[in-house]
Amino acid sequence: MRLYNFCNKxxxxxxxxxxxxxPLAFTSDTSELFEFNKLWLTFGITIVISLAWITKxxxxxxxxxxxxxxxxxxxxxxxxxxxxxxxx
Length: 88
Prior knowledge:
Layout: H1 2-21, H2 36-60, H3 73-87
Helix pairs in contact: 1-2
């Protein structure tokens, strides 16, 4: 249970870092809106959150994904984005 609680803390504090560090991450080398360093920071923290979540699932020996009202619109949106990208 110690590892499970540690994973919960990692997920919690990683979300805090994600929401507070990404707006503050900048370098003087970039000037575009979607800065490359912010994308990499978001990507890195998301990987940490995902690994902690997968570790929790392995510890509990169950993979539970909560159902939401966005279960149908999300795949439809992804399919539309992929279909538009294939025509470009």
